[in-house]
Protein 1
Amino acid sequence: MTYEAARTDPEFDTPGKGQGLIGVFRNRYLLSLLQKKGRTTRYHGSVLGWVWSYVRPGAQFLMYYLVMGVILDHNREIQFFPVYLFAGIVAVNLFSEALRNTTSALTDNASLIRKIYLPRELFPVSALGVALVHFLPQAVLLFVVALFCGWTFSWMGILAFIIGMLLILVFALGLGLFFGAINVGYRDARNFVDLILMFSTWASPVLYAWTMVHERAPLWLYNIYMSNPMTAAVEMFHTAFWLPLAPNSPRPEHLLVFALIGGAIAIFTLIIGQLVFRKLEGTFAQNL
C-alpha cells in the first residue's frame, strides 16, 4: 500500500498519535497495570510504607493547628476548628499530589515511552489514580475524626464530598496534562507547578474562614476567589464534614453556583490541557 493510500485509509493511524482521553478507556487493562506499578513503587524500600500516607497529613495538621488554632486563636473563632482545618488539608493534599504526579508522569516513565507506543494519556491518568488511592486513607481518617466529634450521616454531605473530589480531580488532571506535556521539553514547567502548589493552601479557605475574604475584599475579587475550583472544592469538603458539626456557622451564599462555575473552569482547563497534550505528544519520545 502506498503512503497516499494508507493516509486515506480509515483504519490508518499516524504513529505516535492516540485518541486522547478516549483511548484511556479503551486500554483499561494497561491503565490498571500502570496504576499497580505506581502503587507498588511509591514506597519501595520504605520501612513504614503506607503509614506515610497518614504521617504527612498528621504532621501538617499538627503544625497548622498549633500556629493557626492555638497561637492565632482560630480554635476559638471557628467551631470545631480541628475538623475544619483537617477537611481543608485533605482536599489540598489530594490536589497537590494529583497535580505533582500528573505533571511528572511522562518524565517518570521516559524509558517506557521511548521503547514502545502506548496512548500517552495513560501515564497522567494512572498517576491521578495513584493519587486518589493514597487520598483514601486520609479521607477515612477525616471521616473517623468527624464521626468521633458527633458527625451524622446525610446524603447531601456525601454528595458534597463527591462533588468536591471530582472538582479537584478534573482540575488537577487538566493542569497536569498541560504542564506535563510542556515539562517534557521544558523542565521549567515543574517550577510553575511548584509555585501553584505553594499558593494552593492559602488561595482557598483551609487555614482561615471564607468570611474573612468576604468582609475585606471587594465584591468582584470575592466572586473570583469563590469561583476558584479549589475554593469551591474545599467548601464542599467543609459542607460534608464540618457544617453538620457547626450548623449555626455562616455558609457561603450561592455555593452551588460557585461550584458550577468552578466545575466549568475545571472542564475548560481539562479541554485546554488535552489540546496542548495532543499537540505535543508526537515529540515526547525524542524529547525524552
Protein 2
Amino acid sequence: MAGRLVKSIGALIGLGVIGAGVFLVVTRPQPLPDEYWATAGTPDVKNGELVFSMGGCVSCHKKPGAEGADALVLAGGVTIDSPYGKFHVPNISPDEKAGIGNWTLAQFGNAVTRGVGPDGSHLYPSLPYGSYSRMTPKDVGDLFAYIKTLPKSDNVAPPHELGFPYNMRLALGGWKWLYFSDAPRVELANADATVKRGQYIVEGPGHCGECHTPRDELGGFKAGQWLSGAPNPEGKGKIPDITPGGSVASWSEGDIANYLETGFTPEYDTAGGTMVEVQKNMAKLPKEDREAIAAYLKVIPKL
C-alpha cells in the first residue's frame, strides 16, 4: 500500500514537472530573428514620422503636460491606471542610458511587435504590441529611425506598481498564449486597396481596438466584440461602439474622415477625453489614410 502511494506521488510530481516544462516552452518569449528585421531596408525618416503620428507615440511617451516641441522629448513618466495596478510609461528617447539609444532595430522591433524586451523578458501589454504585431518591418524600421532624430532625455520612469500575481512577468507568457496574435481582427473578402489600408492602420499601428474593444477579466479582448465599445479607462462614461451598428452608424465615410481631421462631429460636437490626443495625431495623416480608416469602419461586421 505504502509503495503504491509513493509511486502515485512520484507520478504526480513527474507529471507536474513535465507540465511546468511544457508551459515554460509554450509561453517563452518568442522574438523574431535579426534576419527578419533586416528586411526593413533603408530607413525612410519621413515615413517614420507618419507612423509615429499614426501610432500616437507622443501621447503616452511625452513628459506629462508637455506641449509643442517639448512633446517630442519622449521622456516617459505618464502613469496609466488599470485594474491591475499602475503602469509607468518608459523613456523611449534616443538617450543611450535612460532611453533606447543603444537598442538595435531587432530589439526595438521585438519590443514593439512581440512584447519582448532587450533582455529577453516579456513586456506588459500596456505597450499595445498586440496591435503593433501587424506592423510591417518597413514601418517599424522607419519609426525607429525617426525616433532616433528626436531629442534625448535622461529621465528614468519609476517601475510599474503591480500587485501579485500581476507583478510576475513569467505569467505574461500565459497571457500571450491566450490572446496574442498577428492575424487580422476581421476577415474581409474582396476588400479593395483603400479598405486594406484602413484595416492595417486601425488594427495595427493605430491600435484603435485597445480602447474601443471590451476586455475580459484577464485583460484580453472579448471574442466577437471588435470595436463594439468599452468602459472608459479614465473612469467616466464609455468608449463608443464604432462598428456600423454603433454610435457612428449614421455617419458617412466623409463624416468619419472629417472628424479625424477636424475633431468635429456631424452634429458639430467636438472630440473629448483621450480622443482629443488621438484626433490630433490622425489630423497629421494624409487625407487618403483618414479616408481609408473610414472605409474600413464602414465594412466591418455590425454588432
